[in-house]
Write a structure and sequence with these properties.
alpha/beta; Indigoidine synthase fold; eleven-stranded mixed β-sheet; 13 helices; 11 strands; 47% helix; 15% strand; globular; binds pseudouridine-5'-monophosphate; binds manganese (II) ion
Length: 299
């Protein structure tokens, strides 16, 4: 499997010397934010990880190779290219065998990080159970990946484009350790709370690292979701964002958007209607990258 991987010299060196490494995904760049903010964000996420004395490893598939650690040119390519696939577990091998370009979602980034020997991954929000699940059966493969692949994912919870209580039920059923960072409230991405309670809380990066290590040492498969709320300064009031999300959901239904296109469509509509949402998004991913670096140092 390692023959499919291409580690940047810096990442390779860091992994071999057991230095802290933080994986970063590329769907957020290619399908989650508009250009040029996506590129600026990708670069500043890498900087944040470095400021916290860890090595960033942004992951993407370019010409059928899994790149772990992207150069500036490769980041630019992922930010600008139009025909980039959005890869999850099911189509990662397709992109490799067909020598395509693809951005990795949380699920695919977890698989690639694990193959490379990286244990910590920072993102914005993971996928989950969609609100119309009884009609569409739309449940993100991210949830199942969290139950299979031993990577600690730091996210700001999930967006309320999703059904948050159902998403948490599925995570519980799948046995994923979902733990709040300095909170008992599961965050809803733009807002610090979702109204859904968490059963587990940690207050330091060391506690988070210990929890994940304990899980691994016990031989329990799968990963862990560390839920880190957006800062008070950047948070958007739930009432304000919920109006925008409702409009976006109605539009998606009207246009018959389905499958893989649902999440990117909703993300772009939300930012169109409320530009403040993009700043909030950038701020929370940076904060997740910083926390992920601190956790990686404690592993
Ligand atoms: N949620 C966000 N921003 C994102 C995504 C989700 O707030 O960029 C991306 C992530 O890459 C996630 C993917 O893994 O969307 C989930 O897509 P789907 O719902 O199609 O599984
Ligand atoms: Mn889906």
């Amino acid at each position: 499997m390692r023959s499919f991987l291409e580690l940047s010299p810096e990442v390779k060196n860091a992994i071999e010397s057991n230095a802290p490494v933080v994986a970063l995904e590329s769907t957020i760049i290619s399908h989650g934010m508009p250009y040029p903010k996506n590129l600026e964000t990708a670069l500043s996420l890498e900087n944040v990880v470095r400021e916290h004395d860890a090595i960033p490893a942004t992951i993407a598939v370019i010409d059928g190779k899994i790149k772990v650690g992207l150069s500036r040119e490769e980041l630019e390519f992922m930010a600008k290219a139009k025909d980039v696939l959005k890869l999850s577990r099911m189509d990662l091998p397709y992109a490799i065998s067909q020598k395509k370009n693809g951005a990795t979602t949380v699920a695919a980034t977890m698989i690639c990080a694990h193959l490379a020997g990286i244990k910590v991954f920072a993102t914005g929000g993971v996928g989950g159970v969609h609100r119309s699940v009884e009609k569409t059966f739309d449940i993100s493969a991210d949830l199942f990946e969290l139950s299979k692949t031993p990577v600690l994912v730091v996210s700001a919870g999930v967006k309320s484009i999703l059904d948050i209580p159902k998403t948490l039920e599925v995570l519980e059923t799948l046995g994923v350790t979902v733990v709040g960072y300095k909170t008992e409230d599961f965050p809803s991405f733009y807002s610090r709370s979702s109204g859904s309670k968490l059963y587990m809380r940690v207050d330091t990066p060391k506690e988070a690292a210990n929890l994940f290590e304990t899980r691994m040492k016990m031989g329990i498969d799968g990963g862990m979701l560390l839920a880190n709320p957006i800062s008070k300064e950047e948070e958007i009031e739930p009432e304000k964002i919920s109006i925008v999300i409702k409009e976006a959901l109605l539009l998606a239904e009207k246009k018959g958007i389905s499958g893989k296109d649902v999440t990117p469509f909703l993300l772009s509509k939300i930012v169109e209607k409320l530009p403040q949402a993009l700043d909030a998004n950038i701020s929370l991913v940076k904060s997740n990258a910083a926390l992920a670096a601190e956790v990686a140092k404690n592993l």
